[in-house]
Each structure stands twice: as structure tokens, then as C-alpha cells.
Amino acid sequence: MFTAVGVALAAVVGSAAATPAASTGTVAPAAPNRAAAPASSYKVKGIDTSRHQHEEGGRKTSISWSAVARSHAFVFHKATQGTTHTDPDFRQDFAAVEKTSLLHAPYHFFDPKNTTDGTAQARHFIRVARAAGYRGPSAGQLPPAVDIEMVKNRCPSALRSDQIRAFLAEVKKAFGVAPIVYTNANFVNTCMKGKGQALSGHVQWLARYNAQQEPRRLPGTDRSWTFWQHSKEGKVAGITGPVDLNVFRGSLAELRALAGR
């Protein structure tokens, strides 16, 4: 990978705004990207994890989620990929994080194998997430996320914008909130021919591994980033190997509101 309640929360997540307003608790229109703003200027930190954070040097490792929670505010867990794969560590990690202060949500790796499987991917993700106890934004659970990127450094040959829309609509119907979209501008330009309209209207979680420069706005979309993945080689107490590092573009109170707290 390149981590208000009810009606009010739905409005926050589904609106065209990207940056929460710090003083009022409402959501303000996103400011233009500050191209040189470093990741260190954002104080609400998080990670995202998968089975890879449970492997080090060919041996199985565990995560101390209580240790992670002492230095970070949120985590996104990989839950599923495609129409059949389930991350082997998702369920135990999700349950363990529920016992900490970390705000969290599952994510799905969008991996199309044919040009009509968007809904099937969504239903696989929904089943696995629900079985682990995910119910959507409430009591510390952030909106669900979908990871749309290259597969083995190549654009997915079966990628279609209408199937991305089908996935997003099915997940929104299941959990009552528009999913967060993880990707980056290079992917949209290269694999979607610069046409990112299918991603418009969704909170953006963007990757850019230059910690001194914010992610570029996605072509064809209506907002800037809310979550920024700025490193894939981070070191975090409680995790043995490298982990993806993220920041949130807002205050801790605003992140908690996004998670129904």
C-alpha cells in the first residue's frame, strides 16, 4: 500500500468538503494544497496494517496495540482483497484494537478480475467486516475504506470506473456512509486516464512518500486530502517491522467525530 453522529456524520463524510473546521466542529471547504507543508505539521497520527505487520524475518510476530495507541490515534486494517481473499490477521487485530483508544476501520484492496465484479468485491468486504464486528461510524469506528492502486506495479486490466462506483455504492448502502478512498494522483492519471470522477464525493486518503510535500489533488475530484500516507517504512512502538505512516488533516476531536465519538 503506497490508517457528528447519524445524519450529521453522514453529512460530514459525504459532503464535498474535505477539511474539518477546527473551532466549530463543522466541516469547512478544503483549502488549496500547501505543496511544501511537511507531514510533521499534522499532529494526529495513524497507521495502516495487514498481515505484513505480523511477519518479520520469516517468523510470525504479534502487535502490541496498547503500545501503538500510546503514540497514534487511528488505524486502518486490511480486511479483504478481490472477491475471495481475507487477510488472515484482520479479525484478531480488529478485536484487539476495539479494546484500545485507537479509532479504526477496515479497508478493502480493490482487485478486479473481470469488468463486472465491483458489487461482488463489495459484498465480500461487507461480509468479512461485519463478521469481525464492524458496523460503520459509531463508538470509535471510522468510515470503511477502499484501496485503489496498481497491482504488482501494473494497472489492473479489468479496472472500470463503473465498477468502482458499484463497489462504493454497495458499501455505502451497507454501512450508511460513503467509503474513504485510498489512492494517489499518479494512479488516476496512469490507470484511469486522468478521469477520477468516480472518486468524487468521497473522503480522500492519499499516498505521497515525500514527507515534505502534501499529496496532489486527484484529477476530476471535488476535494483535497483528509488522510495522508506519507511513509511505508515507519517505525512504531508495538510493531516489529516497518509500517505505513499516516496523518489526519484536522484535530483529534474532529477525527473522533468522524468515528462517532
Automatic annotation (TrEMBL):
User: Is the keyword Protease assigned to this protein?
Assistant: no
| Region (Disordered) residue spans | 21-60
Q: Which PROSITE patterns match?
A: GLYCOSYL_HYDROL_F25_2
Where exactly are the transmembrane stretches of this chain? Answer: none
Q: Which InterPro entries match?
A: GH (IPR017853), Glyco_hydro_25 (IPR002053), Glyco_hydro_fam25_subgr (IPR018077)
KW Signal (keyword) present: yes
CDD domains given for it?
Answer: GH25_muramidase
Q: Which residues form the signal peptide?
A: 1-18
Composition bias, Basic and acidic residues: 45-59
Question: Hey, which family's this protein in?
Answer: Belongs to the glycosyl hydrolase 25 family.
State the protein's name.
Hydrolase
